[in-house]
Task: structure prediction
Amino acid sequence: MAEIRVYNTLSQEKEVFVPRKPGQVSIYVCGVTPYSDTHLGHARPSVVWDVIIRFFRWLGYETLHVQNFTDVDDKIIKKAQEEGVSALEISKRYIAEYLASMDALGVLRADQYPKVSEHIDDIIKLVDQLVRKEHAYSANGDVFFRVASFPEYGKLSKQKLEELRQGTRFEVDPKKKDAADFALWKSAKPGEPAWESPWGEGRPGWHIECSAMSLKYLGEAFDFHGGGNDLIFPHHENEIAQSEAATGEPLARYWVHSGMITLKEEKMSKSLGNFISLKQLLEKYPRGLLRFYLLSTHYRSGLEYYEGKLEEMGKGWSRLNEAALKLQEDLAQAQGGELSSLDQEALEKLDTLEKGIIDALSDDFNTAMALGVLFEAVRDINSYKHQGGYHSQVLQKGWDVLRLWAGDILGVLQLEKQQQEGLTDSLMQILLSLREELRKQKNFALADQIRDQLAELGVVVEDTPQGPRWKV
Result:
């Protein structure tokens, strides 16, 4: 197996990946809070982890991927109160919408999608365990984690507890013994969902939910914990504190955080109201193009979105897809026989380039570099054909590289889209030729009728000295 190096937020270094169990990879990724439409910001970590999991599987690993839904949350409760329905009804609606959007984007389903509402007993047991170990305390129906009882607090975010206390990073609550302490259990409030517990009716705090669910499905320790870099503090910092205080084991070996998508220099988020609905984007753009955009920058870097960005990205994406489609067509007519020096040189180049793709993905899952190598492969294949190369073994190797890495692993190939566009071009040429013939016969009424009916469909026909042109 290839040696994989992963940037670990915990150590702030690239480390060689060593699985806890040989041949197996265990992954927990923080999922969405389902109270509104799925947006482009949600799609980025989902597509990144989709590629990581596909790559691990290609390498021969078994993967266990758990991604939660935070279906008990202040935002969901507020939305439910506004609509006059239950909080679980709101979350059920948007969970279904999220999963449908991910399916449309070609993202593999996780092995488990635990929901907070279905794991209350597990959460209560974990909170009780922390209370009994004196890492937590109850206060008038609330339960707080005692941060001072965990000396390593701040090791993920690299922040010192005393500096945090002096700042304004903590929620003010007179029930707390220390401003840094955080809620594990919240006492019930009128109109909010609540469950029975040893401390009275209430509901879980945000951070304890992920700890309870990851421990249930992946055990006391696992390989990867993922999420956006906005979750490093306080969410993941608090997860580490409460989980490791309970078990005495490191929660995850590798902490992997993706950068934010920005819109007008602000993080794209539902709470800011500046998000782009994924459903709307999928209605307008091919899924392969959206994945191409999301993977075009290294996952740890920020990614900018603006009006026209996908149109810009579409030029490169189309070139890659058109090259793959043409290669598929050429392969059907290619000849075998003895390999020439040109053929052998082309095969060696393709082997080297494929190794370059594997090296890119092995180096902290660098999809941007992998895409760059794929474009280099396309250039080499085209150069080979321009020199008269047409051997089936070479073209098959080229097709195998594009199909596997651009198609199966990165998921940016969408040949059916290119084929549909090719059919559209052919049909339009037939219509325009028919219209030209009518104009030559001076049947302008019928020629104009064709033009006008196309216009109703959003297709503009322009008559130029070089002949008719059309555009949508």
